[in-house]
Amino acid sequence: MPIEKMLAEECDVLCLQETWLTKQDLGGLSDLHPGYVGVGEATTDLNSGLLRGRVAGDVAIMWRSRHGHLINEVRLGVDWAIGIEYRSADHHFYIINIYAPYECRDNEPLYLERMAYLSAFIDNLDSTCIYLIGDFNANVLNANRSPPGRQMIPNYNVQTLGVVENFYG
Predict the structure, then answer these.
(1) Whole-model pTM?
(2) Which domain holds residue 128?
(3) What is the mean pLDDT of each run of 10 residues along the chain (169 residues)?
(4) I want to staple 15 with a disulfide (CB 3.0 to 4.6 A). Which of 48, 97, 152, 157 is the partner?
(5) What is the CATH number of the domain that holds 151?
C-alpha cells in the first residue's frame, strides 16, 4: 500500500519498519506528505563505501504535524529503534518503534541484546504507558511456544491492541 494512502486514511501516527532508507534519506521523511512530520533511524550510510545488496532494516515514525506541539522525538542511540513522546494535559505516553527480527534461534543473541537494551531504556522513562511497535518476525505474545515471547512477557505487563502480521495492499 502506498504511504500516501496510509497517511490519507486519518492516521495520526504511523510506525514503519524496513523502510529501506539510508541515513541520507531520513531528512526527506517530513517531505513525504504536507500534513506529516517524520523521524527515523537507518543502518546504511552511503558515505561509508560501496552498497551491496539492498538497504536492510531501518525504522521511522510519522505523525500529523498538527500534533507537533504535543510530540517530541525520542532517540534511543541505536539504528534499530526510534521513539516519540506524547504529552498533553490529560495524557502522557511513549511510542517506540523497533526492528528486532527474531526469525530463528541463530538470531537469539542479538534479539536478547536488543530486548535488554529496550528494558533498560524503558525502565528510565517517566511514564508507565509505553507502546512498543515493531517487526519481530516472531510471535511475541505466546510465551509458551515462542522464545521471543518468553523474553518479553515476564518482564512487562504486555497488553495488545492488535497484531498486524503483514500490511501490504
Answers:
(1) 0.78
(2) 3-155
(3) 62 85 84 88 81 74 93 94 94 91 78 86 88 72 55 50 43
(4) 97
(5) 3.60.10.10
